[in-house]
Amino acid sequence: MGNWVLRGWEKRTPGDGEGGPGAWGIWEQESGREKGDKEGGRGIWAQGTGKGLRLDSSLASPLIPWLRGRAGTLQENLDRKLFGQHLVSKVVVKAVKGFLNNENAKKPLTLSLHGWTGTGKNFVSKIIAESIYKKGLKSKYVHQFVATLHFPHAQDINIYKDQLQSWIRGNVSICPRSLFIFDEMDKMHAGLIDSIKPFLDYYELLDGVSYRKAIFIFLSNAGAEKITELALDFWRNGRAREDIELTDIQNALSVSVFNNKNSGFWHSTLIDKNLIDYFVPFLPLEYKHVKMCVRVEIKSRGYTVDEDILTRIADEMTYFPREERIYSDKGCKTVDAKLDYYYDF
Ligand SMILES: Nc1ncnc2c1ncn2[C@@H]1O[C@H](COP(=O)(O)OP(=O)(O)OP(=O)(O)O)[C@@H](O)[C@H]1O
Ligand SMILES: [Mg+2]
């Protein structure tokens, strides 16, 4: 069966013979003709509740092949797979679930994930994608941009701006529930990201396209020092990491990202105009979290966990600051490569 693409919406009233009232998506198989009652085949209809998709409906999943339809999996997966990031879980679940369940969102959802290397930013965007789309990151409605790969040359910034705008416009017209991930924001040329500002703003329609169901996620290391400073502060004062609250960090984070020439958001109107809904801070990972990552990796390869090897690998990682040695330099990155060495039999 080919992929199903959303072609438009149709209002239905009770008695139409095809489900209840509300807005129903008209779906078309990419290579095939439009399916509809008239042609004899049953159309694939996405049940809405008047203004759009209802993702949490248990009906949604079988009716819309590419949508998972159970935002509940997000919480479960974050709880189970993500270590040491209590703030992330809280904000991401609240933001994403709230947005998916809101029929009247006034703007697309914009999340900016910040933190030290290897602390789980790509990992979380993958979990978010998997909670919304059956194919996760591989879904054709999920678009990842990597600054150094897709926008490498400063002199081509105007071309990139045009390309980026038409890519987003084109894809949101095909599927309003599209996800755009911008990786390596801190390596993005200042100004490029501002070209997508109109899409993130509070417009009902722009040239006939509504962006209000789209999700934009930005990933960067910008602000990592600020986050680490805060975590260290708690640690030095004998306070639990889990007691760090979002309010302790969010404002400082947005200001430091705005004023950081290498953040991709330097003096960006996205921040200026409050178009980023959530700044999500990733805390630096401790020794115990590294161990948890190693354990997961060993199990995922089907090996039995050898506590000795597990400890040796965690010990091999380097930790900072120099005196206390609390946080892993590379987070949980490179754990898998180290495992190759020990389990290479
Ligand atoms: N908090 C975490 N909990 C569980 N696993 C993690 C966590 N952080 C990282 N990992 C593991 O380490 C791998 C690398 O992390 P990831 O690519 O998400 O880091 P990142 O924050 O995007 O780093 P960078 O800033 O260098 O891009 C993940 O695929 C995951 O397996
Ligand atoms: Mg990353």
Automatic annotation (TrEMBL):
GO terms for molecular function: ATP binding; ATP hydrolysis activity; kinesin binding. Residues 285-342 form the Torsin-1A C-terminal domain. It comes from the Eukaryota. Its main location: other. Keywords: Cell projection, Cytoplasmic vesicle, Endoplasmic reticulum, Glycoprotein, Hydrolase, Membrane, Nucleus, Synapse. This is Torsin-1A. The keyword ATP-binding does not apply. The keyword Nucleotide-binding does not apply. It is a peripheral membrane protein. Residues 1-25 are annotated as: Disordered.
